[in-house]
Each structure stands twice: as C-alpha cells, then as structure tokens.
C-alpha cells in the first residue's frame, strides 16, 4: 500500500483566519465568537475593523471553546469565562514548565 | 461489533431518568473532559462517557440502544434482525463499525439523510492526535506515521470503519505543546462537503540531558570547584554537535551561561538559546594528595562564603 505524505502547517501567528473560518473549525456561531471577543477571551488582529481576522494560534482556543460549549452545554457568558480561566491556567502551566526547566535535574 | 454498556459507563441504572443521566454525565465530564482534566487517560475515558451520554439523552437513540439487549461489555454481538429499519430505514454494516458510529448514524432524524444518497452536504469530522517526537526530530524536522481508524460511508450509504495511513511531514521548529494542522486529512466529507482536518499536538519525549522551555534548552553543567574559581574551557554537547564553552573565573553555582542560538530552531526564523546551568561538584572520595591540597587551600584562604550571616548572628536574631 502506498503511504501518502502530507504537509503539516504550524498554527501560529504567521497564519490568519477570518471569523467564518474560526466558526467552521470550532462549531461556534458568529455570535458566540463575538461574545468571546467582547469578554477578552479572544483578541482579533484588527479589533477596530468590522471584518476581524485572528492569528493562527487562536484555532486551538476556539476549538477548545467549541468542545466545552457542546460537552457542557454552556451559555455564551459561561463559555467566555471558562475559556478565559483555562487560558490563564495554560499560561501558569507554561510559566511553571519554564521554571522547572531551569531547576537542576541531578546533583552528581 | 463489541458491546458497550452505556448505563455502566455513566454509572446509572437502566431505568434512570433523563435528569439522572445528565447529572451523572456532568459529574464525569468535569473529571475527564480533555480540556479540563489532567488525567492522561482522560481523553479516552471522556470519549466513552460522551458517546454514552449522546445516546442515552436522546429518547430515540436510547430506545434503539435498549433494543440491542444487555450483554457483557466487550462482548461481540449482532443487533436483532431489521434493527436498523425501525429507525428511518437506515442501512448499517455491523461488522466493521463501532457502537458509537452506529448511534452517530441515527443522529437527528432526517439531518443525515444525505448519507443515504441525498444531496445534503456535510463536512468531514476533524480529528486530533498527539505525535510524540524526540528533541532531535524537532530540531531537524521529521515525518510522523499516522494510522487512523475513521468511520466512512460507502457508495451505498453504509457506514464502515476504514484505516487511513499516511505520513505527516512535521517541519523543523516544533516544541512541546505546539499544534499543526493537516488540511483535509480528517474524515471524508459527504456529498461534496469538504473533508475534515487533522490536528497534530506535538509532545516531546523527555531528553536525558536537555530540558525544554519554548525553543530554549537548559542543560546542567557540572564544574569542579577549581574550574569555577579559576575559569576553564569545557566541552558542552549541543543538538548541533559539541562546542567549547568558556567558563569565566569566579563562576558560581546556579549561574546560567548562555550559548546563543544553540537551542531549538523556531518555525519562522532563528533559534532558541541553550543555557548551561552551573553546578559546583566536589569529589566524594579524595586521594591523599587532593585532601592535602584542599587543606592547604582551607588554611590559606580568607574567603568566607557565609559573610552575610555574620551581622544576623552578631545581633542574635533567631532564624525565622
């Protein structure tokens, strides 16, 4: 069997997605995405404009939001709060990881 | 097809009402949801819990599930004859599907009519998998073998599980927790709907020498006391081969010596740094000669590493 090869692309700030694309990736409605922006859980690249675009790393956040909305049947305010708090936990976990990396592992 | 006892998965009686099912699901979801739980097995457990809830919360699906009878979990079984026809004349192939696929196929009444040959377009399902790679692979770029078992509908509208195998090219620049997207490599779309995407979560294997922080690496650098005091040039391993690192005189334990751009490459451009964290290491067994030299140093040195204690000790302040 021939094994196909596929290129993976980084979900980072070199990619830019529209609101419609984020809605497709996450299953969230346009109104739910706007609620996440209004609460500061999502930050568009161009908040002053009417057609928002978002950095590629936001895809991870909105997909998690889509799962949380569906699996816990959250209403938009609760969803925005959950996403904000989970984002804060991820930041703190990253800080702990960075500090742990600087601790000596062994002392011969 | 293997039987799954959805009532047992949720920990409810077979005659539990919808509220009891919802309550049991929520309790388990809080514990195992992959976006909330730190349990490494949480994702797999949550999938089972979610499948059970999706089936039992819907009266039509629950009735269909109950008609399958009660079997031992994991036991091979066949649904009763004409089982599928009672639910909108849907056609099923029972040999190569999962129980959850079967009930996903019952979803939403006419919503999935397109699966039986209609024209309703539906995007394919997205999938997420974790790719465990080494630090060396992350540094050079690598390919990851992916084998997915996904539900797909054949030309007759019948649901089957199919194996999809391919190699994903992961460009250099990965680090722990980064995400990549493989467009169109998820589940097949229906009736011209777009194929789903596959999301790769990168997880780095722990390394014997290096610890990872973003694209920076940290390495313990053991030094003998005289190397730290007098300075030295020591050979240090890096991902790109060993380098000679100049240790300045008077280096102390815990000091970080930076080797610029010797960390992991970044996806866009540039590299992280490698930090060598100094540890002063003393020999646990001394030869006569070494003992004599240390004694001589001790007698001749005016160095007091605890000078900052003295004021406190003189004041008689108790340690807090």
Distinctive features:
heterodimer; A: 108 residues; mainly alpha; Multidrug-efflux Transporter Regulator, Chain: A, Domain 2; two-stranded antiparallel ribbon; 4 helices; globular; B: 320 residues; alpha+beta; Helix Hairpins; HSP40/DNAj peptide-binding domain; 3 domains; four-stranded mixed sheet; three-stranded mixed sheet
Could you please describe the fold and organization of this structure?
The complex is a heterodimer of chains A (108) and B (320). Chain A has helices spanning 19-26, 30-38, 58-72, 76-101, and strands at 4-7, 9-10, 16-18, 53-55. Chain A is mainly alpha-helical and 108 residues long. Chain A has a single domain, classed as Multidrug-efflux Transporter Regulator, Chain: A, Domain 2 (Orthogonal Bundle), CATH 1.10.1660. The longest helix of chain A has 26 residues, at 76-101. In chain A, 27% of the residues are buried. The mean pLDDT of chain A is 90. Chain B is α+β, with helices and mostly antiparallel strands. Chain B folds into 3 domains: 1-107, DnaJ domain (Helix Hairpins, Orthogonal Bundle); 123-205, Urease metallochaperone UreE, N-terminal domain (HSP40/DNAj peptide-binding domain, Sandwich); 210-311, HSP40/DNAj peptide-binding domain, CATH 2.60.260. Chain B has 9 helices and 11 strands. In chain B, strands 6-7-11-10 form a 4-stranded mixed beta sheet. In chain B, strand 6 (210-213) and strand 7 form a beta hairpin. The longest helix of chain B is centred in the N-terminal third of the chain and has 15 residues, at 18-32. Chain B starts with 5 loop residues before the first helix and ends in a 5-residue tail after the last helix. Classes of the chains: A mainly alpha (108), B alpha+beta (320). Strand 2 (9-10) of chain A pairs antiparallel with strand 4 (179-182) of chain B.
């Amino acid at each position: 069997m021939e094994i196909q090869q596929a290129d993976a692309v980084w979900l980072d700030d070199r990619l830019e997605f529209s609101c419609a694309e984020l809605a497709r990736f996450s299953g969230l409605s346009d109104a739910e995405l706007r609620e996440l922006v209004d609460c500061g859980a999502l930050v568009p690249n161009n908040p002053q404009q009417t057609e928002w675009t978002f950095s590629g790393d936001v895809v991870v956040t909105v997909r998690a939001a889509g799962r949380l909305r569906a699996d816990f049947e959250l209403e938009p305010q609760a969803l925005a709060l959950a996403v904000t708090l989970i984002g804060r936990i991820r930041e703190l976990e990253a800080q702990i990881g960075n500090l742990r990396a600087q601790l000596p592992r062994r002392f011969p | 097809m293997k039987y799954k006892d959805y009532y047992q998965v949720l920990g409810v009686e077979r005659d539990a009402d919808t509220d009891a099912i919802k309550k049991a699901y929520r309790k388990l979801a809080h514990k195992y949801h992959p976006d909330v739980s730190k349990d490494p097995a949480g994702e797999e457990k949550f999938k089972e819990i979610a499948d059970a809830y999706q089936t039992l919360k819907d009266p039509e699906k629950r009735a269909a599930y109950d008609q399958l009878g009660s079997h031992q979990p994991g036991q091979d079984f066949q649904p009763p004859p004409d089982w599928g026809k009672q639910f909108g004349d849907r056609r099923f192939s029972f040999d190569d599907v999962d129980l959850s696929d079967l009930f996903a196929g019952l979803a939403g009444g006419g919503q999935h009519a397109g699966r039986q040959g209609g024209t309703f377009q539906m995007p394919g399902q997205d999938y997420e998998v974790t790719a465990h790679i080494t630090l060396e692979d992350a540094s050079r770029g690598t390919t990851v073998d992916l084998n997915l078992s996904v539900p797909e509908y054949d030309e007759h509208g019948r649901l089957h599980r199919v194996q999809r195998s391919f190699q994903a090219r992961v460009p250099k620049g990965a680090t722990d927790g980064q995400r990549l997207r493989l467009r169109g490599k998820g589940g097949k779309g229906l009736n011209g709907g777009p194929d789903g995407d596959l999301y790769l979560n990168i997880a780095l294997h722990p390394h014997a020498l290096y610890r990872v922080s973003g694209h920076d690496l940290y390495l313990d650098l053991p030094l003998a006391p005289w190397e730290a005091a007098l300075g030295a040039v020591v050979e240090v391993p890096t991902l790109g081969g060993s380098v000679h690192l100049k240790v300045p005189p008077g280096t102390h334990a815990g000091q970080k010596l930076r080797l610029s751009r010797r960390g992991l490459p970044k996806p866009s451009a540039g590299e992280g740094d490698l930090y060598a964290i100094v540890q002063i290491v003393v020999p646990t067994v001394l030869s006569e000669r070494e003992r004599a030299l240390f004694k001589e140093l001790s007698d001749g040195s005016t160095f007091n590493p605890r000078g900052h204690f003295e004021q406190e000790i003189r004041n008689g302040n108790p340690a807090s």
